[in-house]
Each structure stands twice: as structure tokens, then as C-alpha cells.
Design brief:
Distance between the termini of chain A: 85 Å
CATH topology of the largest domain in chain A: Spore Coat Polysaccharide Biosynthesis Protein SpsA, Chain A
Oligomer: homodimer
Helix content of chain A: 25-40%
Shape of chain A: elongated
Number of domains of chain A: 2
Strand content of chain A: 15-25%
CATH class of the largest domain in chain A: Alpha Beta
Radius of gyration of chain A: 29 Å
Chain lengths: 635, 635
């Protein structure tokens, strides 16, 4: 019997024709995986772990995620927008389960979350008989079905499958007076666990571990390795419960690991476990190999995992059928095919990619909303200096770029210091920049009553945040009009000025009337006109941007039309302005400038927008079409 | 016997402790792979194929590449700089082998190259007994050792392993008068072949296929599917030669494929074959699945495949030992650790990433040399308009960005039309922009006697190319001084002017003396001064850039010092100038501006540069150090 070596067995009796059809197999089994996940950073780890599992899997999977509110928020959005076929997700509230373990004193870096694995038999659905439990810091290098298959080797009494601990910790000889929890030999590591839930429940697991833990805690001050100490103490007492698993299923890269004894002769590592608090920076002579494996999935384009499984009929993820129908109806010969395809693309979204701790809500607070891609990253520091308030930024990145972004923020003292800037990663897919989809993601995540809808190459005046937020006591505050009017009556829009842009695109800012603005002491009302695209402050519940406008052109103009159609009042504030920074034209703009087809498509999109506008607003919308057909008047 | 399904076999007798050590296996066998590859596009395909093979492999591999001069040039550099452990490469000259097959009339899109597979038994080393032969348009989804293992199932007489053809082509009923070459049933596809070379040679393979082909060509006008027709005709005559392989080892995605009969019930596809001339655009109801698999490797970061194999002692690739020693000597606590690590990084280089057909060499011709990353792609069209001559450009990209770049060029009429622009992809690795390494790659690939060393955000004057190339007959040509002086006596440098830059960084251009330049009618000589960094035209064999300068700062200055130290004469040409385009600061510059540590490291690098200079040039180099220590004089 060779462990961890799998070679295909092929009969030499094959004849022509037989080769075409493989032996048919029953549809692959649904496998269940449970993971405890809390906070922003663990959510990123979980994303990487899930990518590695999905890459190799050939079975439908169901993830049971025990999460805090932060992780749930992030992961619900992630899985919802990921739309991976044959993947189900359930969430369980970590806060509800906490009291079951919070009485246990614990010194491990994973905190209470590790201990949560003890209560899974009670927390997961009662009809769930088997589950693979994973730490967020493991990476798969093989098909998880191979791990699941090890359940078949459990004897009737065995209920927990574990890999031996690959360090001498539990031998208790690491230093003088080192007193670890009791364990069988080297003990077991709980980064990867196979649980027979049904049998555990029958065996009274909850009582079993509670008793053991209580007894040990009479003489030991706390758990050192969280749940792992308790699992080992229970197993020491009931060795018949455990089915040891081959070491390759949990290759442990802690600091003084003995893992080399496992892998030195194995060519086939199945699961890598980064069980050192140093994670990727752990010192280990083969760490480069493991790191590459990890980086593979860290940077892997998760969109590519949206592939269907063969021989695995499963209901499509919610929304996909409708989407596929819409995509199928597109005409590939249509010159605007690329635009329409881009509009229909559902982007994977990872909200709050970095730790984010918004301040308690303040009345009249304003969040700056903007979007960017990699080539504008260097704007972030200046933006942080100019806008001391909350921001909600959508970043359009590949999985690999998201990692570069992470390093960029870590290296910047200015950015690291800010807890009130939320970064939402929207993963790239398709050839055109989905500017309005990005804006909508950032807008939806703003938490303050007001939002300042900006663009990444604009720097707000230093005073703008305080000015908009109604003064802060010391300043003259025409901004009060904003707030006063908002609560009752019509909506309202501010128009911070764009000095530089005016010269480039006068029609886009003509109604602001700069001559008047320069002299104004109080806010004044202006009328909408064709192609007007001021930067505005609006209540958070304002209309969303129209996602049909992708790439360059008319994306903001359409939004202002929508605001006007909904009778938002357009007010120019005398002290508000924002500064345009020059930059090289983006790829999408270059394309627009050089391609007549691009301009034709934009015209087609505008026409469709106006048709929809008429459908929604009736005759009132006629003015927008009429205005567009007239040449611009004197500004 | 189940084909294509591999589950681990695990004994249930495992006890604690046994799990730690897997059964030890003999060191993995060296596997041989032969591929025919010609031209720029096939070289890119081969890169993707190799990435898919390396991703899953656990054995040492040797690639036998039958190439034309273009592919050899590209692939030698690629493998040399890739430095993948346990991978060997041998090249075989396609031109030498061509006469053996060029007599065969052939209508297939793969041209003569497909036929080349017939002559492999004679072309590969006589002691090589087995080889896997692959088309460049296949993608692996599994470990190639599993394919190699099928050799074990060959009977004594079987010499060729093949998968059945997954179309009705050879049944001869596709259209009226469709007369395919003879085949057994549906025949076999030759995208994936297992060859027992020793036995083929013994069996007189060369004569065997030549006779069959000659005979068939008496009644058939040409091969339709190149080598595949001939392999099938031989097999029809000698059915005992073939070992049919399971269909999953060559899932064929041609237009009317029957492949679904293979994969509809298999969860385990091993090799995908894009055997339609439409490649990824083939219509097939599951093509999305296959495309994702292909894109996975197309965009996969090849650097991650530089990992060592476990249980596989193999000599490290040339140069790695020295490199690893140097890396090991670096001090992680050194503030400049990142800089030094970046300098030592060997970047994977894919020269001539796109088809490139340089004009025949002309005397005094000048190649524009520059480097860029993704955020400057939109400069390329303008650059092409301004510089009608040859260019050699190094692009610093990830594997995924290289594909975006490809689509960008395809979408641009201006760029697609140019055959004299060579694009060399240098794959990203590390946090700092290796500006001088990039310049050296582009410089090394210039084919003309002179090079104009430029930067991507500078547009040459429209006339500059002709002016530098000695006038083209119609123009006043002070440039002739350049050429006249170059052949004998000291080297020589031109200093095209940078109008805009002068104001930003006057010290960098002071010696050019703009007042004099504006009036000058003939070239004039200037003296080197501290921090001088003009843009220059020099003979191609000029000194290389110093790769220690990474990121921003002093990278060009050091090169000019080196030119001066080697007694290049500095001449300013009256009509030459180039225009700086404004752009957002790059990430590296932002970092430089905000980080004192960055500036300190740059100073350390400068100091080391001067020490090396003294070592090379002795007392003569003292002036550079002295100049640096003095405050700048009046410009």
C-alpha cells in the first residue's frame, strides 16, 4: 500500500474505440467543509484557501462558515458575486456560539476563534454527518475529494481524523518547566480535521470535551494552542476516537517543524499549513517551495474558477440563468457587443479588503466616494491628506494586483494610519473599465448620511470635508443649507468646482457659472443643461449610476440627468472646490479618441439611456433629449 | 479497472507515528518531451504549454525542442532566464530536418512543422528510448508522469501510443467526394503521442512511413492533416504498432468534435487539445470550461514554477548556485535589503514576444531603445508615429499583463502595422522597478549599428530618426560627424535636447548649454559634469547600464558617467531634440519622494558605484567623486 501516491491503472487490453469513452462514474458526491473566520484579514485568507480548494476540486462543495459580522458581510458579497457553480455557502453566527467556549482561558494567537471548532458538532445542521474542518491558514495542493475519501477508512469507533503534530511541543521537553497539555506522543494538529458529526453527537462530544477541559484546567492555567490542546487531551483519554491521517494532508510550517520528515521523500504534498504566527515569513529551508504554492492561489484569477463541473448536474448559482440568457441574446456581430457584454459582467467583489473601522456615525457626515485602478494608486496618499474624513473607494484589480495594493498600503505610513478608508476590490474581467459599476460598489458601502461623489484624479480643497460637514464650529457654513433642505422637500446637490476641468470640457461645467461662483457669498441654485457633470454631494440613498456606461464617456453626465429627473435641486456652494491633477490619458480614453466605432457605441448607449428615461419619467424626460439635440449655447 | 479515476489507497491499519513518514519512493524518473516549434506565435504557445506541464509535474523533465532560428532565439533566452530546477532543454535545428519531409505535399495550417514529428526517431539522441510528443496547442490539466506511466502498458510490438480522433473526418462521410487518408475507424489524433523510439528505429520507422506516404501520394494529391494522415496510414497497415490511449489524454476541441462523448461523464480531463485553427474562438458548448483552464496557464506567473522538486536531487540550473550564495549573503536587516535583492533578481525574459521582422540592416541605422510597464502602454501609438524607424522596447509585465498587452497591440491599427518594433517582455518580480535591467534587455536586442537611448515618456521630434540616420539625402546633416568619428578614434555621444525636463531637473542637463544649442549650426562638444543625464545616440556596443540602480534615481546618470569614463566624446547636435510628455508620477517615484530610507539607499548605491568606478578606471575616476561633492556651479 502506497500512501499519497496515485497512479492511474490502465488495462493493456484497450482496443480502438474503447478509448473514446471512459468508464462512467456516479455523479460526484457533495462534500462539506467547515471554516471559522473572523475579521478582515482572515476573510482574505479564506478567499485564498477557497481558491486552492476550488482549483483542484471535481465535486460539488458546501462551505459552512462560522463568522463574525465583519467576515459575514465580506464573504456573503464575495460568494454572491463570485457565482461559482456547484458551491453552496451557509453562515453561522460566531457571537451566538462564543459563550460555549469563552470560559476557557487561552493564550494562542488565534484567540477564541480556534476554540470554536470544538462546538461544530452542535452548531452545524443535525442531519450533517461528516465534515472537513479547515483552518484559514491552509492551502490545498490536491483534490479535496481525496481527503474526504479517507472517511471510508474510519473504523466504527473512530470519529476524528487528524494528522500528527509535526513538532515536539507535546513531548514537553522544549524548555525547563515546559508543561504542555496531555497528548498521545507528539499529539495531533487540528488545522485539518475530519469529523464524523453524527457519531460525535451520539458519543456526547460536547460533554466529553467540556469535562476533559475542566479537569485539565484545574492544574493548567490556560490552553496554549487553543482547541488543539483540548482535542489532544480528549484523544489521550479516548485513543480509539482518532483515525490518524497521512502526514501529507497537513504539512505544518511552524518554526521548529519536523515536517521535513514528512515531505523529504514525498513528491506529493496535499495540504500546506502555515501554522506559525509568522506565516509566510517563517524560516524554513524549503519555505520558498511552499510560498510559491501559496502565492499561486493568492494571485490566482478567481474568475477562472467559475467553470462548471462535468458529470455534476447542479443548480446554477442564483442569478446566473437570467444572466446567461441575456448574454446568449447578445449579437456577436453587433459593433457594441463588447460594451454590452461588459455591462452584463458580474464582477467578483471583495468589500473591506483591508481592516476598516469606521467612526461611530456622526450627523451630516460625508464619505468621499471614488474608484480607481492600479495606475492611480499613487493618488491615495495625497487624497488622504486632502480629505480627513471617511472614504469608500472601489479598486478595479486582478487578484495579483490586489496583493500589490496590499503591499503598497502596508508600506505607506499615511495609508496605514487611516482606519476610516474602506477599500473594496472589484476583480477585473473584460476589456472595458466598468466605471459606473465601480462607483455603485463604493457608493453602496458608504456609511454616512451624505456622500461626495468624486473621481480619483481630483483632490478636494483641504477645507472641503469640514466645510461640507457643516463647519465644525469655526467656519462660515453655507453648507448648512444642504442639511436643512435635505430632511424635507426636494433632494439637493452641491457642485464643488473643478477649476482645471472647466477648460478641457467647458460644456460639462457651464451651468456652474464660474463668474458668479467667484463672487458668491451664499449657495445659489442652477439649472440642469446638456452634458452637465458637476461633482456633487448627495444623500447616500441617491440614485445609482447607470452601469451601461463602461469605459470612457457620459458616465457621470447620465447620473446628473437622473438626479435632475428625480428633482434633486442643484445648488452651487461658494466655498467648495476640488482640484484636477493632470495625468496621462487612461487606456480607455486613448481608445475612445482613436476609434470611431467606440464613439458610435457610446451614441447607441446614450440613445438607449434616453429611451429608458422616457419610459421612467414620461414627458418630463423629453427635455434631456431636446437639450442634447441643440448646439451648446453661450456658457 | 477504472480509467482516469485515481483515488488514494489508504490502509486502515495506520497508527500514531506511522502517519508522519510516508512510504519512501525511489527518486522520480526523468521524463522526455519533444515539441516542434517555429516562429513567434508558436513560441508563446509553447510557453503556455510548458507552464501547464510544470505546474503539475513532480518529475525532472527534459524538453527536446525542434525549432527554427526565431523560436530558438526566443526559447533559449526564456529557459535560460527562467531557471527552473530539474528542467533540461535541448534544441534541434528544424531547417536541417526539413528536407526529410519537405517533399510531402501538405494542405494543413500547421504547414511543414507538423510533418516534422515523423522524423523524431532519427533526430533525437540515439540512446533516447521513449518520448512524449506534444503539439504546442495542448494544455495539461494533470501530471505528465501519469501519461508517461502508460508506456508500461505497451505490448512488445506496440511502439506508438495515441488517442482516437474525436471527429468523423477519417470515416470519409463529411461531404460528397470527401476522400481522407486511410485510417483504422475514426483514426488517431497526433497532438499527443507516446513514442518508443528505440523500437521504432529497430522496426525501420523511417522507411516504413516513407513507403506508405509515397504509395498513398500516388492516388491522393496531398496530406490534409499533415503528419496525422501519415501516422494513420501506417497504422492502418500495421495495426499492431499502436497502443490506444484513454481519450482524456487528448480532448480535442475542433469544430465538429465528438469530444463530449469523452468528457461528458468524466470528471477528470488530463490534456486539452485546441486543434481548431480558430483555437480559443472555437464554438463548442463547453468551451468556456476549457478556455478557463487554458487562461489559467496563459496568465499563470511562471516565476512560481521555479520551485525545487522534493525527493528529486537534481543539479541546479546554471547560475543559480552563485545567485543563491549572493542572496544568502544579503543582510535582511540592511535598510537597502530590498534594493540589493532586486538587483540580484534574474527576471524571466521573453524576447520578441510579438512577430517582428526587422528590415535588412542599413548602414548608420538607429534603433530607439526604451522600457515601460503597463501604465505607459498608451504611449506606444504616439511613439510609433514619431519614430518611423526600428525600436527595441522592454516591457515589465506580469504574465497576465502580457496578455493584455497582446490584445492592446492587436486592437491598434498603428501598432499592428509595424513590423520593425520588437517587444521584449521582462516578467515582473520584486517590489522595485528594475529600470536598468530592462534597458539592458532592450539594448541587447537592438540590431542596428546605432541606438538612441530614450525613455517612454519622451516623444522624439518627427524628423529625429531621419536626421540621426544621416539625413536621407534631403536634409542638412550635421549628423555626419557622428558617423565619421565613430569608426576611428574615441567613441561619441549625441545629446538630443529635452526641453521640458530642463526645468524640472536643470542640473541633469546643464552641460548641454541650451543657449548655445539654440544658435548652433554644427555639433559642438561638451564636458561631462555631475548629474548630467542627456539622451544619447551611441554605437550598439556601448557599455550596459548598471543594474544596481533599481526604482527611481541615478539610473541614467551612472550610465553617462560610464560613457565618459570610457572616453566617449559628448557632442550636442543642433537639430536633435525630443519632447517630454507630462504624466502622473510612477509608484517608484512617489515612494522615493516620501521615504528617507529610499534616499539613503540610493546614496549607498551611489557610493558603491563610485568605489567600483575607481577600481575600474583608477585615478581617472576621481573626478566623478569630486564633482559630486561640490555644489552645482552656475549652469
Amino acid at each position: 500500500t502506497t500512501l499519497g501516491q496515485a497512479r492511474p491503472v490502465v488495462g493493456s487490453h484497450l482496443r480502438v474505440g474503447e478509448g473514446l469513452l471512459p468508464t462512467s462514474a456516479p455523479p460526484p458526491q457533495l462534500l462539506h467543509v467547515a471554516i471559522v473566520c473572523a475579521g478582515h484579514n482572515s476573510s482574505r485568507d479564506l478567499n485564498t484557501l477557497v481558491k486552492s480548494v476550488l482549483f483542484y476540486r471535481k465535486n460539488p462543495l458546501h462551505f459552512h462558515l462560522v463568522t463574525d459580522a465583519v467576515a459575514r458581510n465580506i464573504l456573503e458579497m464575495l460568494f454572491h458575486t463570485w457565482m461559482v457553480p456547484a458551491v453552496g455557502v451557509s453562515f453561522y453566527d460566531l457571537e451566538e456560539l462564543k459563550p460555549q467556549v469563552s470560559w476557557i482561558p487561552n493564550k494562542h494567537y488565534s484567540g477564541l476563534y480556534g476554540l470554536m471548532k470544538l462546538v461544530l458538532p452542535g452548531a452545524l445542521p443535525p442531519d450533517l454527518a461528516r465534515v472537513i474542518v479547515l483552518d484559514t491558514d491552509v492551502t490545498f495542493a490536491s483534490d479535496i475529494a481525496e481527503l474526504w475519501a479517507l472517511f471510508a477508512h474510519f473504523s466504527d469507533k473512530q470519529v476524528i481524523g487528524l494528522v500528527e503534530n509535526q513538532s515536539d511541543w507535546y513531548l514537553g521537553n522544549l524548555w525547563r518547566n515546559h508543561r504542555p497539555w496531555p497528548a498521545l506522543g507528539r499529539g495531533f494538529n487540528t488545522g485539518v480535521i475530519l469529523l464524523r458529526l453524527g457519531r460525535l453527537r451520539q458519543a456526547g462530544w460536547g460533554q466529553m470535551w467540556t469535562l476533559t477541559a475542566t479537569r485539565e484546567l484545574l492544574t493548567l492555567p490556560a490552553t496554549s494552542l487553543a482547541d488543539q490542546d483540548i482535542f489532544n487531551a480528549v484523544i489521550k483519554e479516548h485513543p480509539g476516537l482518532v483515525q490518524p491521517l497521512p502526514c501529507v494532508w497537513n504539512v505544518q510550517l511552524s518554526d521548529h517543524t519536523l515536517a521535513e520528515r514528512c515531505y523529504s521523500e514525498a513528491s506529493d504534498l496535499k495540504v500546506i499549513h502555515w501554522n506559525s504566527p509568522k506565516k509566510l515569513r517563517v524560516k524554513n529551508k524549503h519555505v520558498e517551495y511552499f510560498r510559491n504554492l501559496y502565492l499561486t492561489f493568492l494571485e490566482y484569477d478567481g474568475n477562472l474558477l467559475r467553470r462548471e463541473l462535468f458529470g455534476c448536474p447542479s443548480p446554477p448559482p442564483p442569478g446566473t440563468e437570467q444572466l446567461q440568457r441575456a448574454l446568449a441574446q447578445l449579437d456577436e456581430e453587433d459593433a457594441c457587443f463588447e460594451f454590452r457584454q461588459q455591462q452584463l459582467t458580474v464582477h467578483r467583489v471583495h468589500i473591506s479588503f483591508l481592516p476598516h473601522e469606521p467612526l461611530p456615525p456622526r450627523p451630516h457626515d460625508v464619505t468621499l466616494v471614488a474608484q480607481l485602478s492600479m495606475d492611480r494608486l499613487q493618488m491615495l496618499e495625497a487624497l488622504c491628506r486632502h480629505w480627513p474624513g471617511p472614504m469608500s473607494l472601489a479598486l478595479y484589480l486582478t487578484d495579483a494586483e490586489a496583493q500589490q495594493f496590499l503591499r503598497f498600503v502596508e508600506a505607506s505610513a499615511v495609508l496605514s494610519a487611516r482606519q476610516d478608508v474602506a477599500y473594496h476590490v472589484v476583480y477585473r474581467e473584460g476589456p472595458l473599465y466598468p466605471v459606473n459599476q465601480l462607483r455603485n460598489v463604493a457608493l453602496a458601502q458608504a456609511l454616512t448620511p451624505y456622500v461626495f461623489l468624486s473621481d480619483i484624479d481630483f483632490l478636494p480643497a483641504y477645507s472641503l470635508y469640514d466645510y461640507l460637514r457643516w463647519g465644525g464650529g469655526t467656519r462660515r457654513t453655507p453648507g448648512k443649507y444642504v442639511v436643512a433642505r435635505e430632511t424635507s422637500g426636494p433632494h439637493l446637490v452641491l457642485c464643488p468646482l473643478l477649476l482645471r476641468r472647466y477648460h478641457e470640457w467647458p460644456r460639462g461645467h457651464a451651468p456652474t457659472d464660474y463668474a458668479r461662483w467667484r463672487e458668491a457669498q451664499t449657495p445659489y441654485r442652477v439649472q440642469w443643461a446638456a452634458d452637465y457633470e458637476p461633482y456633487v454631494v448627495v444623500p447616500r440613498d441617491c440614485p445609482r449610476y447607470d452601469p451601461r456606461f463602461v469605459g470612457f464617456g457620459w458616465n457621470k453626465v447620465a447620473h446628473i440627468v437622473e438626479l435632475d429627473a428625480q428633482e434633486y435641486e442643484l445648488l452651487v456652494l461658494p466655498e467648495a472646490f476640488t482640484i484636477h491633477l493632470p495625468h496621462a490619458p487612461s487606456l480607455d480614453i486613448s481608445r475612445f479618441r482613436s476609434s470611431p466605432a467606440y464613439r458610435d457605441c457610446l451614441q447607441a448607449l446614450k440613445d438607449e439611456f434616453h429611451q429608458d428615461l422616457s419610459r421612467h419619467y414620461g414627458d418630463a424626460a423629453l427635455k434631456y433629449l431636446t437639450a442634447l439635440q441643440q448646439p451648446p449655447g453661450p456658457a
